[in-house]
Each structure stands twice: as C-alpha cells, then as structure tokens.
Amino acid sequence: MDKSNLTIRSVRARAVDAPISRPVKNAFGVIRSAPLVLIDVMTDQDVTGRSYIFGYARLTLKPLVQLISDIGADLTGKPVAPFDLMAQMDAKFRLLGWQGLVGMAVSGLDMAFWDALGQAVAQPLTALLGGTPRPIRAYDSYGAVDPVADEKDLRRSLDQGFRGIKIKGGDGDLANDERLVKAVRSLIGPDIALMLDFNQSLDPSEASRRINRLAPYDLHWIEEPVAAENLEGHAKVRETSPISIQSGENWWFPRGFAEAIASGASDFIMPDLMKVGGVTGWLRVAGQAEAASIPMSSHLFAEASAHMLAVTPTAHWIEYLDLARAILAEPVEIVDGTITARGHGLGLSWDEAAVAKYLA
Description:
Layout: E1 8-26, E2 29-43, E3 48-54, H1 61-75, H2 82-93, H3 101-120, H4 125-128, E4 136-141, H5 151-159, E5 164-168, H6 174-188, E6 193-197, H7 204-214, E7 221-223, H8 231-240, E8 245-247, H9 253-262, E9 268-269, H10 273-276, H11 278-292, H12 302-309, E10 318-320, E11 338-339, H13 352-358
Parallel strand pairs: 4-5, 4-10, 5-6, 6-7, 7-8, 8-9
Antiparallel strand pairs: 1-2, 2-3, 4-11
Helix pairs in contact: 1-3, 2-3, 3-11, 7-8, 9-11
Organism: Bradyrhizobium erythrophlei
Keywords: Magnesium, Metal-binding
Protein name: Mandelate racemase
C-alpha cells in the first residue's frame, strides 16, 4: 500500500485543560493551566496526523472544537495536500477573515496534515522538508517572576543549560520592572540572555521610557512593547530603542508578517504556529525573514517548532513553555539547553489516560 497518497477520512477535536508546572503571570492576568484542543486527522490508510492548539482561556475550547470538527467534515475525502488544502480554506474564509478562532483552527489542521505526511513515510517533518533535526538553543519562558520565591526555579533553568531566560514586565510601574530585571540579571549573571516581554501592555511613549531605563541591564530583546497591530507604534519604539525589539506571536498568517516587515516594526520576529498558518504559513514567513535578514524565533509549540526552526535559514531561539507536557506520551526534552526535533511527523503522541483525566 502506498502511504504517500493519503485521503482525509475524518477529523476529531478534543478539549483538555492541562496542568502546567508553574503559573504564567503577565500584565493582564495569570495563566494557571493550559486549555488545549487536540486534533487528530484520520486517513484512509490508517495514518493519523496530530497537532494541538492553545486556547488561552477555557471559554474558547467549545467553539474551537466545533470549528475544527465542522471544517474537518468539509474536508473529508480530500487528499492530504497541505498547500492545496490551505488554498481551499483561504477561499472558504476569505470574506470572514483569518484572524481569531478561525485562524487558529485552520493552523491547527494544517499542522496535523503535515504530521500525517511525516507519519506516512516514517520521517521527521524536518527531513520531509529537506533538512536534518539539530539542536536548537532554547530559552526558558517565565511569567512575571518574584526573584526570591522563584530563585530555585531560575537556578534549575541554568542547571538545565538554558542560555536564555524570558520574564514578563508591564504588570506594575517602571520601578517594579527595573527591580525585577535588576534582580534576575544579578541572579543569572552576565552571560545568559535575558528577554523581557511586555505583552502589548504599553503605549509607544511609555514603552520608550521604560526601555531607556532598562538598557543598562543588557536585555537581549524587548518583546511586544505595544499592541501587536500597532505597527507604526512598534516602528516608533524601535527607532530609538537601545534594545532589540521582538514581535510576531500575534501577527496573523504570512500577509501579517509582510506588512510588519515592510513597516520596520521589529528587529526580530517570532511566529506562532497556531496563528501564522501552521507549517505552510511558517515556511512562507521563513522565506520573508531570510530575504530581510531578520532572525526568527518561535512562540510556544516547542515540539513542532523544533522541526520548523531546523529548516529556517535565520533560526534564532526556540521558546520552551511546557503547555502540553501533561498530556503527551513523549514530552519535549531539554539537553544542554537545547531542543532537537524528534519522532516521525511532528513527533506527537497522546497519553490517552492523561487526556481522559483532563478532558474539558
């Protein structure tokens, strides 16, 4: 049987609310668990493609499951050809638009299609795309930290070999941001990259004011200082910033990145597989990043991102945040502060007992 020619037989979506190792506090609240939707694309040749997406809040889970199930039903009987399927979904939702839950659903399905192709030929997605799995340097991603209460965790990150630590800012005033940054820099030393994420919480003037005050602490990047859609504001902050600006997790699909790059919105970019259009969208953005000589990192989804960064010409950093660890049969591994793509396809398999336990 030729498993290189797959046809979609059915699509299943399940919602879980998975525990995470530590809460993630940001400028707008605290994420205490991971509301995930698990996607299984079953094919006519008993090959199943898998992916998951992150709903941010439990209230998104039911509509996401419904959307993915309904879109999947429309795709039943079609060949697993991701570029063709993306074009069909683009046409289907052109008038409605890509952003929001629809874009998340489409991106999640695309990831599962590519996973199925890798599973069918027993190859990692990286190899299917013409590359070789390799270690990608990772940074450990924190929320707004308490330098005293979180010291043990931060030192554990260093013991695991992480060469980068990201923390959140913007949940207090400038003095609080400076206190946290100063304390963490002192704890991790001068040789570890320290990133600060404002999660879109500032206006351009306040962002510039805070960045100037924080410059002495040798920050590797400032992430999303202003609203993601405010490209002019990003460019204004970047123009005078002594620290590199990072953004992209909330830019939607390749067109969003093309507009951001054209506006000079950031020094670095970090697409989110769930918002960029899955694997298909990522590949197109990677080409834009190469053409513009912009370093490209990942946002979330470390398992899949390790495959994608291995074939990204300007690969920079991979973010580590263990959103899916509790429901994966083989969670991602940190080796000397790096993550390497593994398994066939995206390398995902569910721990079904855990899935049953955390069904939402």
